């Protein structure tokens, strides 16, 4: 009324569109894209695992899902424990552990041995290597308390993935954890509606895990055993051998197979073969194999 029809027309022509929930334009993310380009976000190329042999193959990015598999007794859990120790030493990450096959005291021993680099006991597997001292144990106990949160189901029922993720979310918000380990898949409660197939269930479960990882910038390592391998001749399994569904390889960001030679005539038995079989983000890794030496007394 006061400025005239031309001003009203300009206001209408240049009006900002009413925002629609869930619909975005790239311009809303230009600041984040610029930070990504200038590498000011912090982990654009991921975090090193601490093993130079793996640096060109696999790096840890917040918000991604890594599936880890391998035949029984190949060292999957031991490798993940060593990786967590390296990440804590390198960049100070904290972790939530849902490790259902380990007693707390046994898991503590394994982590302390990897951190202190001395055996927990002085007999048996420790051979003649010097055992960690009481002072080192006390220091290690404080490190355990500061670095790890435990997700454990204390009753007889199996935990569901939703229950695990709710506690993991609390660990992120309350304790600032940057990594979650779920070990293994077959120890979770997998009840599903009669009308839902196992493939549909696995797809839905992995989607929940990926959304948790992305929303909380928390890297998730999910251990899944391969199905029973008939006529197995000792070669590393592949990700399609995981019991349950091909969605394990389809939906993960990274897929790793941990393998160990058991035949002395075929090669050294103290080498762990880390087979990187899938890397979705080409910026942080490549498909390939790396070999790590396993020290029984200190790792």
TrEMBL record:
> InterPro entries annotated for this entry?
DNA_helicase_DnaB-like_C, P-loop_NTPase, Twinkle-like
Task: Give the molecular function GO annotations.
Answer: 5'-3' DNA helicase activity; ATP binding; single-stranded DNA binding
Q: Which GO terms describe its biological process?
A: DNA replication
Q: Tell me the ranges covered by the SF4 helicase domain, including all copies.
A: 40-299
Q: Where are the transmembrane segments?
A: none
Q: Which domain of life is it from?
A: Eukaryota
Signal sequence span per UniProt? none
What's the protein here called? SF4 helicase domain-containing protein
Query: Which organism does this record belong to?
Result: Gossypium schwendimanii
């Amino acid at each position: 009324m006061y400025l005239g029809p031309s001003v009203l027309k300009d206001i209408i022509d240049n009006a900002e569109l009413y925002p629609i929930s869930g619909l975005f334009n790239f311009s809303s993310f230009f600041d984040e894209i610029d930070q990504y380009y200038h590498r000011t976000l912090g982990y654009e190329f991921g975090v090193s695992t601490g093993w130079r042999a793996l640096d060109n193959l696999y790096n840890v990015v917040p918000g991604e899902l890594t599936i880890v598999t391998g035949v029984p007794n190949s060292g999957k859990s031991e490798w993940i424990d060593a990786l967590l120790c390296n990440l804590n030493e390198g960049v100070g990450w904290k972790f939530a552990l849902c490790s259902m096959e380990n007693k707390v005291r046994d898991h503590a021993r394994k982590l302390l041995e990897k951190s202190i680099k001395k055996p927990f006991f002085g007999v048996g597997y420790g051979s003649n290597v010097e055992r960690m001292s009481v002072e080192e144990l006390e220091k290690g106990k404080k490190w355990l308390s500061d670095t790890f949160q435990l997700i454990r189901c204390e009753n007889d029922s199996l935990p569901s993935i939703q229950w695990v993720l709710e506690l993991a979310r609390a660990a992120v918000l309350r304790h600032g954890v940057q990594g979650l380990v779920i070990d293994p898949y077959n120890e979770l409660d997998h009840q599903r509606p009669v009308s839902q197939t196992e493939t549909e269930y696995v797809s839905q479960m992995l989607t929940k895990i990926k959304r948790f990882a992305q929303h909380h910038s928390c890297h998730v390592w999910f251990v899944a055993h391969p199905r029973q391998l008939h006529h197995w001749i000792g070669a590393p399994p592949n990700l399609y051998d995981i019991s349950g569904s091909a969605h394990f390889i389809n939906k993960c960001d990274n897929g790793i197979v941990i393998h160990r030679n058991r035949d002395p005539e075929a090669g050294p038995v103290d080498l762990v073969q880390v087979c990187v079989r899938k890397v979705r983000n080409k910026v942080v890794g490549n498909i390939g194999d790396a070999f790590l030496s396993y020290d029984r007394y200190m790792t």
